Amino acid sequence: YLTPFPSLVEPMTQEYTYLPSSLESQKRALEQLAEIRHHGRAFRFMRQDVMTGKWCLFNIQGMTGKPCQIDDPEAETCLICNEPSSLAGCPFCAGDVASEDPDVKASIADTGDILRFELATDNKSSTDTADEDGLVLAVPWSKAGGPDGQRPWRLRVVRNIYPIMSVVRPYYTKDGNDGGFVEDHGMDINPNPEHPWYPQPSATGYNEVIVENPKHNTCMALEDLLYTKLVLKAMLLRGRELRHQPEVKYITYFKQHKCGSLIHAHSQVITTPCTPAAVENVAMRCAHFHAHYGKCPVCALLVKAPVAREGLARERLVLQTEHFVVTVPFASRSPYRLRIAPRRHDKDFLNLSEAELVDLSGVLRRCCRLYYLRLQDVPFNLAVFTCPVDLTRREEAMYNDSFHWYMGLYPRKRWVTGGFDHATGIADMNVLPEVEASTMRAWIEEDMHADIESVDLS
Questions:
Q1: CB–CB of 342/406 below 8 Å?
Q2: Hey, which bits of 24-179 come out as E strands?
Q3: For residue 254, what is the enclosing H or E element?
Q4: Which of 97, 219, 336, 453 would you label with 258, given CA atoms 20 to 30 Å apart?
Q5: pLDDT tens by residue, 339-361
Q6: Can you give the pTM of this predicted structure?
Q7: Architecture of 277-420 per CATH?
Q8: Domain locations in the chain as residue ranges
Q9: Confidence of residue 15 (pLDDT cuts 50, 70, 90)
Q10: Which helix (H) or strand (E) holds 111?
């Protein structure tokens, strides 16, 4: 698929045909479109607009039945502390005992957690070793395979039973029945998915949820430093495991505070088989900046300039610590947007050291407290912008020199969907363009046979 480095693109020396090459293929394509339109058949695949480089994820009927804890999307949100400590039917509340959804019980309670931090107690086995925080890592970066333990848990990572990407199987369960996997990726609609003009890869990836706390009515701003540290540690552990799995090109780490479908505090880790265009665009601009000025733009603009003794950039400084600098972007696109950049130049979030992890935990918690205490617990999105995985040698050299990972936080006015979309720039679509075009052709035909002059357009 499209690369951000034009010199790496081979010239096209082959004729390609996008439309089905035979009447039989065209018939299959039309039948498949009709089935999607009239019968709700599930499909999940990606497409790229070669003119913009942006990706879309077509998730047809993939989220049917997904729970939502937002009664009125247009209403103002209340403080998270005013929510109940446990909510009946919430799949993330402690022990999952309140859930009446058998799908949730089977997927989370019975198949076990991907990893879980438990409170160390006197009844731990001789093989358990408590870490410096007094916790036991119950299932270290492994596939889920057993029932919940008896000890109380601080954090757990589970597979998303409503995955946005089609799960690579088998991975999460021994029998390979992971759910969320769509066999047919719409190849009859686009029989040549590797066509350079119409790229359409399968939307395969890993979808995981970090349940941050057993309590329903808490968040990073209200809990101790360990809370935030465990969330970041879980991201690192899962990212370091998933980067070695097949069909993983990019790993997205993000959270939606009070602006997703579930209020219970959680973060997500999702992999994609392609690099989001938003990341490629940043990479290209960073490479251009480095080529022109001989500097990494994050080092220059987000780290060194804001902490300098003189200069206007210092006016945008919010917080600085031993390892991180927090600023408001020079061209901020929304109120109270923040960027957290590490002082040490590194392209990869997964290279975070233990000292940086502890420092980042404190920084992130303080930023969340600003949003909670000063902005009345405003809903917000958080995303980590890091480098792709499985880079070529040439890409590795470019990213090493000019790319610098950072974290972004930005408040949302009200409840919104699309945390993955906001974190990656990959639009989540539930209607195919071929179906929309068919609908609008029918509308035009209806208008042509109607008495247009009799329609009051005022």
A1: yes
A2: 43-48, 55-60, 115-119, 135-137, 153-159, 166-167
A3: strand 250-257
A4: 97
A5: 999 999 999 999 999 999 999 99
A6: 0.77
A7: 2-Layer Sandwich (3.30)
A8: 277-420
A9: very low
A10: none
